[in-house]
Amino acid sequence: MKTAALTLCATMGEAERPMIRAAAHQLSAAVSAVLGSPWPVSVVAADCADGVPPGSIWIASLIEDVRRSERIEATMQRWRERIEGWSRHGAPRILLTTLFRSVPLSTDDQTSLERLRRLNRMAIALSCETGIEIVDIDRLFSWCGARSLETDYRCRGQRAAELGGHAIAAAIFAAGLDDFLPADVQENANKQHGGILDVAAIFQRRTSMP
Length: 210
Hints:
With 210 residues, the protein is α/β, with parallel strands linked by helices. It has a single domain (6-207), classed as Rossmann fold (3-Layer(aba) Sandwich). 50% of the residues lie in helices and 11% in strands. It contains eight helices and five strands; from the N terminus they run E-H-E-E-H-E-H-E-H-H-H-H-H. The chain starts with 5 loop residues before the first strand and ends with a helix.
């Protein structure tokens, strides 16, 4: 059986990095369980692009744009240029995560829900225009609730990391890993990973691990 290792090339905020590491771990665990042998998934920073193997999956976040003082049109143009640059590095798949529409209660954070909404709408527009994939963190986190996750748009904390990782891994499985794994392995690994209806039980199991 022919398989190939997977590399996730990530550009995320500092607080979101545990989320991408969780996604890599979950992908590896699900596929390894099906194969009966280790299937490593590595994570590298986007600024290491020159050394990333062709076919790597790129994961990006809008978190750095939340506090920018610029019009959404300027933000969108920067993302067009960024996506074009990544594509030149041979990245056939680029996934962009939405932002959880929840702001902290602290008075020193002036982030507005309107800015988060506009960035999420921009992500959808970029997907339609460029063909990038969307990981809808906002939808999944909203379903679970900010209070139970103990987080906000910054995705801090173990619960946010595990759930966000689940969403990223699920999106990667959903669009296929044909360059890396046979179809039957993908199907069984996706079942092993679990779907949206399994999130509550999976979340409880993962966050209760020592």
